[in-house]
Amino acid sequence: DSGVTQTPKHLITATGQRVTLRCSPRSGDLSVYWYQQSLDQGLQFLIQYYNGEERAKGNILERFSAQQFPDLHSELNLSSLELGDSALYFCASSGGGQGAIGELFFGEGSRLTVL
Amino acid sequence: DAKTTQPPSMDCAEGRAANLPCNHSTISGNEYVYWYRQIHSQGPQYIIHGLKNNETNEMASLIITEDRKSSTLILPHATLRDTAVYYCIVRRAGGTSYGKLTFGQGTILTVHP
Q: Which of A32, B3, B6, B48 is deepest in the core (most CB within 10 A)?
């Protein structure tokens, strides 16, 4: 158990819909990261937040957005869903922000299926 | 971040050492080598990281060549539960994009009874 909690574990929805994935980081961790894993793209970094502020962005689509709340939990919002958005979405956390070199702790993921 | 090259797959007998190689010939002086693994669609799990010295922890050992252009992850006594995809990642410490790990295709390690 990494200490990172993601909900829901599984989600099935239709094209054009909007969903929200939630992540609770390990206790005390200030940084939250979102990753997407699809069959054809592998594991890809989407976005990072540190203590409520966006710190780094990857190839995140404009239809996707995220935020980190004062209690440090984070949400990833996916809208106007397409079939290609079907993937595993992982959240990870770490204690450090800039300058850290340690490990990331990943949650078990949220599996999104768009029909 | 430097690009890494790993063999797509490897096999290992249970109880034997598993040696997973990684080439990172364009690594810079301030870049670390990290290893993560992913067991069947679970979240990736950190294994070990190093800069230039060999490192060992309860899970594995990391051997980095003197010129730092390649490294080897060693699982000393592989078990069936070590069957997973192993990712070698080179990452610069610090900066605003810490945690922006670039996962390649990794090596699928299959441990056989």
A: A32
